[in-house]
Request: fold
Amino acid sequence: MTDSSEAGHPPRADDRWEPSADLTAADLMPNSSEEIALLSQRAELLAQTRRGQSDAEELNLHLLHIRLEGDTNLAVPYPNLVEVLPPQRVTRVPGAPTSVLGVVNFSGTILTVMDLGHMLQLPEQTREGEAVIVVGSGGTSVAFPVTELVGAVDVRSSSITAAPHSPASKRGYLVGVVGNSIGVLDVDRILSDERLLVDHR
Reply:
C-alpha cells in the first residue's frame, strides 16, 4: 500500500509527525544569524507582554489622606470609607471606654464615635476637627473626627512599606506606610477591637 504523502496527496488530519530517532537537540537550534535575531525579537516581545500584564494586575489603592492634630498623617482605604460628615454633636455614653468619645445618629443608625488618636496612643486631640469620617467593614461601622481632610491619594500596592515600630503598628492598626509618612489604616483590625464595644441601649 502506497503512503498518501509519497503519492503526492496532502497528509490526512490523523497523520502524526514522529521525530526521527536520529534527531538531536542541536538539530532544533537556529542555524543562521537571521533565525537567532528573529527568536530574540520574539522573546523580547513576549517579555514585554508579560511585564505589561504584571503591571496591569498590580493593585492600585485609592486612599483618603487625613490628618490628626500633631501633624499625624493617616489614610483610609476608599472601600472602607462610608461617609464624610461635618463636625457632629457627640452624645457621651456613661461608662464607655476611654477610646470612645460617644455616639452620633447617622441616618437613623446610632454609631460609636471613637477617639482614633487615643487608640493609636497619640497626644490628646484638643481642637475641633474639620470633619467626621465614617468607616465600615462587614456590616459594622464606626466614626471618628479628623483635624484635616487632605485629599485623595492613588498608590500602587507595591509602594506600601512596613510600618515603623509603634503602638499602632504593634496592635496591627496600620497596614503599612506610603510616602514614608502616611500610615494606611487597617479598618478591619480597628473595628474588631473590643474597646469599641458600646451598649447603645
Q: What stands out?
A: The CA atoms of residues 139 and 191 lie 10 Å apart.
